Structure formats: C-alpha cells, structure tokens
Amino acid sequence: xxxxxxxxxxxxxxxxxxxxxxxxxxxxxxxxxxxxxxxxxxxxxxxxxxxxxxxxxxxxxxxxxxxxxxxxxxxxxxxxxxxxxxxxxxxxxxxxxxxxxxxxxxxxxxxxxxxxxxxxxxxxxxxxxxxxxxxxx
Length: 137
Hints:
Oligomer: single chain
Number of strands: 5
C-alpha cells in the first residue's frame, strides 16, 4: 500500500490576463472537489453543487481583491495558502496542476467553453511547500 503524503505551504499562480486567472481557479475548484489526492486553496469557496454557495460569480467576487498586478513583469499574480495530499509525495499533484483541467469533461457548456478558452493561455505556478509522509506499518 502506498503512503499518503500531507502537504502545506503556498502556491503563486501567474498569468498575463486577470480573467483567465479567475476562470482557472473556478475550474480548478471543480476538479479538486472529486480528487482523491487533492489541493485545497485557503479562503476560496469550495466547489459544491448548490449554486448559491459556489458559482463563477462567487469565485470572481472572492478573488478580485486577492489578485495583484506586477507591472514590472506584466503579470497578474494570485498567492494562496494550500493544503493537499498526494500518493507518496505531492509531486504528481504539482505535475498535473494545470493539465487536470484540460483532461476533464465539465458538466456545463459554460464550464467547457472556459476550459477551451484557457487552452491558449500561459500560466506558471510556484509551490513553496512542506511535504510529509507517514511511514508504512
């Protein structure tokens, strides 16, 4: 049986388009809802089925004040504390951080259109984490 690692720290996501950053976080929250080895963003609404508690509009309102623009590098940046778990290590979670969105078929046309729009976008993510694992018995 594989060990499950527990990770915590920060993640900084950057891109040149603020709306793309919001759309990415919205779709990422939907993906993470059903992930066995997941990443949780601190103080970002968790994806639930009830639209009054989770929607694109709610995510946008939550993120707007948290996204900063760095004019020196012409990038919008969002830094967030994260918690997560992985199989043996957190490495795979980081490897599929962006690709998981593009491999998923979302429930609504709107979500799938956002996914298609993001395919032409460039993002970077920097993780500063502590990754711990319990030894097998």
